[in-house]
Amino acid sequence: MRILVIEDDDEMRGFLAGELEAEGYEVALAENGRDGLMQAATGDFDLFLIDRMLPHLDGLGVVQALRSMQITTSVIMITALGRVDERVRGLRAGADDYIVKPFAVPELLARIEAVRRRKTFKSDQSLLKVGDLTLNRLTQSATRGGQRIPLKPREFRLLEYLMLNAGVVVTRTMLLEAVWDYHFDPQTKLVESHISRIRLKIDRGFSRELIQTIRGSGYRISADTPA
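Now predict its structure.
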């Protein structure tokens, strides 16, 4: 997977390159929006990591230019601007996701995996499956081992997001954004309580638990036995 990092801060740019390459990604670098746009338009990349504040052409301008050129490569914006309106502007400009500085590397890697997963997912796929668990997106219903699982609307959205990212660790922040449209941390046990309720519904009575808690990182749904 080839990633283009457009970041004007030398230290951050080098840090990102080192961390991504250590994970096996092939990384190209640009230090301003103009050069980054030129590389993005002429290169073969799978993902762009674009800083919000860039010289010559800011991050929003880069994203808007890419989309106007019909370049649909996934974009994660990196920003020090944590306000909700700034994040919304980035998403409306065409970004697929964003991450606010300072951030932990596992959070960035989780977002990269989730974006990549969404990109390869067929939007017309109505059935999601993880092991013997099936989610029907048309009828808003779920079954496991042939047994129907009653889900409330928010529980359905939460389970759907987990299954769309099956095998990938998703963080608490990602769930708050995707399921509750929260772009801030409400400082409650909202995610934890919903995960607990879904676990009772889909795992109770079965020998294998599908929803796994990854300590210090987040949650993952997988039919594989956790290590």
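Helices lie at 10-22, 33-42, 59-68, 84-93, 105-120, 153-164, 172-180, 190-203.
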